[in-house]
Amino acid sequence: MDVAEDLWHHLGFPHTGEDEVAFTDADVEALRMTEELVRLGVLSEDRRAALVRTWGRSYARLAEWQTSLLAEVARDRGGDEVEDLVGLAGQVLPLVESLQDYVWRRHLVSAARRMLTVADSTAVPLAVGFVDIVGYTARSKRLSDKELVDWVEEFEDTCSGVVVENGGRIIKYLGDGVFFTFEDVEAAARTALELAALGDDDENAFPNVRAGIAFGDVVLRLGDAFGPTVNIAARLTTLARPSSVVIDQSSATVLDGLEGFETQKMRRASVKGYSRLHAFRLRAAKSD
Fold first, then answer.
1. pTM of the model
2. Which of 84-93, 118-127, 159-168, 244-253 tops mean pLDDT?
3. How far apart are CA 278 and CA 269, in angstroms?
4. pLDDT value at residue 210
């Protein structure tokens, strides 16, 4: 019972009173399957909390978005909103469930390919990038809730397209920014420069951004990335001016002399956790 309550809490749900009717046969079956995963050694005690928390966070966000979408469709129909929402759920949820299983399996294959030669929680050399929206707080205050959501979704959609097209992987969205990784420093640099250029174009709706890139060992765990390289990339982003990209010394060493790039050494900077950080300004090389 203690384990069941612990897992329920890690999923993101509050504890219920002993006399409260809150569970169904599906919850009992979920516990049976969890017990089987424990027996198989997949959900060991040291992994259990982290894995279940990851499930909870991921599906909570997905469920919130899906419910909002269904509610919006129900409102647009102009009938009884509650009745329409219930009807839509009955029709849509089985389709969404099948598609979620399909998407998960495709990502499982992709993750397996990446991890075949590298065990989880093992440090691997990666280029880490952060791209932040400039002036996010000021602009968000001027937008309605719907306008803000549309603006952020368009930003995330564009970032995702550019990162994936160049061979990178989105680790997470940060509201006013995006965190990604690349196996190739050159591809990460081109991606950051492309996003910075999009924001610098007055005719483009993409917001003005700044970016930071660092290259080094990164620990991959449960779909996230950790380590000093990640911290440095985040700190470098704070040093970048609007529409510019700042990189660390390791990235600059790789990019130095490559066609299409120019690097300029900056003064050593004092940022949180690093008193004398080597930073370089990255630009696209001007054609003759």
1. 0.65
2. 244-253
3. 7
4. 93
**The CATH number of domain 123-284, selected from 3.30.460.40, 3.40.50.720, 3.30.70.1230, 3.40.50.150:** 3.30.70.1230
CA-to-CA dists, residue 53 to 2, 155, 226, 281, angstroms: 16, 27, 17, 38
Coil, strand or helix at 71: helix
State the average pLDDT over residues 129-137. 92
What span, in angstroms and rounded, lies between the C-alpha atoms of 134 and 206? 11
Identify the DSSP state of 216: E
- Name the average pLDDT for the chain: 85
pLDDT at 142 > cutoff 90: no
All CATH 3.30.70.1230 domain ranges in the chain, comma separated: 123-284
Cα–Cα dist 54/52, whole Å: 5
| Per-residue b or e along 98-120, where b marks 16 or more CB atoms closer than 10 Å to that residue's CB | eeeeeeeeeeeeeeeeeeeeeee
